[in-house]
Write a structure and sequence with these properties.
Structural class: alpha+beta
Number of strands: 18
Low-confidence stretches: 531-542
CATH architecture of the largest domain: 2-Layer Sandwich
Distance between the termini: 43 Å
Oligomer: single chain
Strand content: 15-25%
Helix content: 25-40%
Mean pLDDT: 95
Strand order of the largest sheet: 15-12-14-13-17-18-16
Shape: globular
Number of domains: 4
């Protein structure tokens, strides 16, 4: 059973060993978990639906509660406190594009706002119902999840856009193929959601980000149906895929998606190495990517994240031996962990591992072998469950992420971490960063921060707001994108103007009005709706 107020399956957990608990308490002081609302109490507070009965609508309180929030920290605070504020008035589970069109027609008839819902994994407020005098209908796409066609000659697969990651891969792998899109939210997130938020998978160096994988499909909008044909390439004006990518449900609902798939790889391996310090590690990563070494993933943790990850691994005796071994090899205090992988042809992968291994040694690094890499592979989708464990200990965790050109990477890391520590003071905070995706031009920067719960939910939310605003200002001040992989939603919308400019925002707004003249699709996300004053915390008014 999926948790109604948190991440994932209730049966799954992330155990934190005693040494890791001591480490966290040493960094943050004692934690105290705030009292949590019970589902029955929340259900009793759901107001009557403003939508009348309809064959495609579910108006029962539990369906509405389970579709009212995503996975951002404000969402968690709302769910755990029971103070949801807003609920959808109904939830629909269409099974075809015909039913999606009927739902959009019905929404227009009753003047309802519409929220497209994929896996509910948004961490920036994509799926939250706004406070509105208009009723709100959430359309859950989970029943449109089948592999509809596999063109093996063109290597194109057509899916219902509501297919979740594991189901998508299972259907492809049964035919000997893979999409290879593995974001950390893989367990729950959907293909349509990946496209709508411009998702990036952990092995995008090999498979590509979702914009490279998305070949075409169908979007149903209040203005009509948009059919995007598949071409290997085209110079015929604007690419309509780019209209849909990152549209976050403001223009319509993706019902079918055609994606570029590959044969299952012959060989795959993940490795871990340790570099003496951040500067040498960062320079090595840039050299590897700019030499076009055919890796499938490359991730670099700074010294604080490296130390934290090794403690959380939960094997203190083995980790102590590792520290001792690395120190003997000249990689001691300040070391940074590099995780990398190869995917594809066996001989080419082996050659790449030898080449990258030699580069690591020349940079003064030491290989940790395939064992640590295999542990990373096994646990890479379990990490979100750590949030539940920390919550029960009285701590909250959140992330900010961006991407920038190589000359700004160091300044970006320092400025984000400094902004978080300054915004937290005098309360304790634990901050660390990694480069999760690297490019010839630059890198993503992904920062995690932990802090103790305050004395109340409101005080904890206010502390988060200060942290989020400080980090977001740091990002745009350092010439970074406001999001490399999480999208815009509501939480990042105030900062979008720094990236797009007034003219860019105007062009996006014009597209939204073309596809959705009444502005009923996912109102308040990505851009404010007409006359809205909800966006007040950004760097400048729009």
């Amino acid at each position: 059973m999926r948790r109604w107020n948190g991440w994932g399956d209730e049966a799954n957990s992330y155990e934190v060993k005693p040494n890791a608990i001591a480490f966290i308490r040493d960094k943050l002081g004692p934690g105290r978990c705030l009292p949590q609302a019970e589902l029955a109490d929340v259900l009793a507070r759901v107001p009557p639906s403003r939508l009348a009965d309809h064959p495609l609508l579910q108006r029962d309180p539990e369906a509405r509660v389970r579709h009212a929030r995503g996975q951002s920290l404000p969402d968690w605070l709302a769910m755990r406190s029971g103070e949801f504020c807003n609920f959808p008035d109904a939830v629909a589970f269409p099974e075809s594009a015909v039913e999606v069109r009927e739902l959009l027609r019905h929404a227009q008839e009753v003047d309802a706002l519409v929220i497209p819902y994929g896996g509910g994994t948004s961490v920036v407020g994509h799926i939250n119902p706004p406070a509105s005098e208009r009723p709100v209908l959430t359309i859950d796409m989970s029943r449109m999840s089948q592999l509809l066609d596999l063109d093996e000659r063109s290597r194109l697969a057509t899916f219902g856009a509501g297919v979740a990651g594991p189901d998508l891969e299972a259907q492809l792998r049964a035919r000997g193929y893979t999409l290879g899109h593995f974001p950390q939210s893989f367990e729950l997130a959907t293909l349509g959601g990946w496209i709508a938020s411009r998702s990036s998978g952990q092995q995008s160096l090999h498979y590509g980000r979702i914009e490279q994988l998305f070949a075409g499909g169908t979007m149903e909008s209040p203005g009509g149906s948009l059919e995007i044909p598949t071409f290997p390439a085209s110079s015929a004006g604007l690419d309509m895929r780019e209209v849909v990518l990152g549209s976050e449900g403001r223009m319509g609902i993706i019902t079918e998606a055609r994606v570029r798939v590959r044969r299952l790889p012959e060989y795959e391996s993940f490795r871990v190495a340790f570099l003496p310090d951040w500067d040498s590690a960062r320079d090595l990563v840039r050299e590897i990517i700019q030499r076009d070494e055919p890796l499938s993933m490359l991730r670099l943790s700074n010294a604080v994240e490296t130390a934290t990850q090794l403690v959380l691994a939960g094997h203190p005796r083995q980790v102590a031996l590792l520290h001792k071994y690395l120190a003997i090899r000249g990689v001691g205090q300040g070391k940074c962990m590099l995780t990398y992988g190869v995917t594809g042809n066996r001989s080419r992968c082996k050659s790449t591992l030898r080449s990258v291994g030699a580069m690591i040694r020349r940079a003064g690094g030491v290989s940790g072998g395939a064992g640590l890499g295999e542990k990373w592979r096994q646990s890479r989708f379990r990490t979100p469950y750590l949030r539940e464990t920390l919550w029960q200990m009285g701590y909250v965790v959140d992330t900010v992420e961006t991407a920038c050109d190589w000359p700004y990477v160091n300044g970006m890391v320092d400025t984000i971490e400094g902004a978080l520590m300054q915004a937290s003071a005098p309360a304790p905070i634990h901050v660390f960063t990694h480069l999760s995706h690297v490019y010839r031009q630059g890198s993503s920067v992904y920062t995690t921060y932990l802090f103790p719960m305050a004395d109340s939910y409101d005080a904890t939310l206010e502390r988060w707001r200060k942290l989020k605003n400080g980090a977001s200002a740091a990002i745009v001040g350092q010439r970074g994108t406001i999001s490399h992989q999480h999208g815009v939603g509501a939480d990042h919308a105030p900062w979008l103007v720094a990236e797009k400019g007034e003219m860019g925002l105007g062009a996006i707004d014009a597209l939204c009005h073309y596809f959705d003249p009444d502005q009923r699709m996912n109102a308040g996300k990505l851009l404010p709706v007409d006359g809205s004053d909800d966006v007040v915390d950004g760097p400048e008014s729009r």
